[in-house]
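Invent a record, attention on tokens:
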Amino acid sequence: MAGTDLTYGDATGEYLALRSDAASVLGMHEALVVAGSDAVSFLTGILTQDIEGTGIGEVTRSMLLTTRGKVRALLWVLRGDDEVLLIADQGTGESVAEDLRRFKIRVDVQIDDPVPVVEVWGPNAARGLGDVPDHGWIRTGDAVVAKVPLPGVTRFMVIGDADVHDVRPAGLVAATAVRVEAGEPLTGRDLDDKTLVHETGLDTATVSYSKGCYLGQEVVARMEYRGHVNRLLQGITVATNVLPPEGAALIAGEKEVGRLTSVSESLSLRAPVGLSLLRVDAGEDIVVSWDGGTAPARSHSLPMFTNT
């Protein structure tokens, strides 16, 4: 991920800071502003969540889908009055902006280009930020500060002129471990435009079934009321002290049942961990297989670790 080193020299210390103190994380998300008198209604008609039904100053989760109901982007939505801030996974902000601009017909809406997001995670995350919200988001100076849920971890995201101090930086190795434990996937890494909403396990948090039409609604509604999925996002722990590569096959019996994504080392679970869109009939005990090695593994529902 652009802007994030694998480690700043002490992956163990960085992990412990994320879990028990505070650390900054760069390059995991980016943000874009959708502004104008029609911004809220415009997004409500495109995204899976009911943006109009969200309170001003609140943070909620949503998805942008393809017309076939597959996941284009996971989003955090910061609702304002005549503006909405969308926080997207790193590398997906521009495609979100382009998709939204294609639907901008006869509406008062301005869609800005994505900008970087600075994050601070950990029980003492507020120490490095000054004014922070108890929940939702606020403007402070030239920045927006949002409290964005992550199971087991306090997380703030800062958009704009971020004055983050008195916290150490955490690299990709440590941040990925905590993210995987919490069960948060990234678009383009753990999910893609072949992924159904219900396969993510995030449908309850991201979809409103009571609002009007939105992009991909027919497929989502059909899956909710009449369908079932063959895959589900799961956590994976590896039973040996070997870190498999991302993309390693997951095998149950003689059949491939998934691929390993977002691999890192969890100190809390004392095992290598990853995510996978795993077949629901795979069972808990599986084998990770890659060129040059195999290792026994186990699947888990998400989140895998929630204690702060």
Remarks:
- The CA atoms of residues 66 and 216 lie 6 Å apart.
- The mean pLDDT is 94.
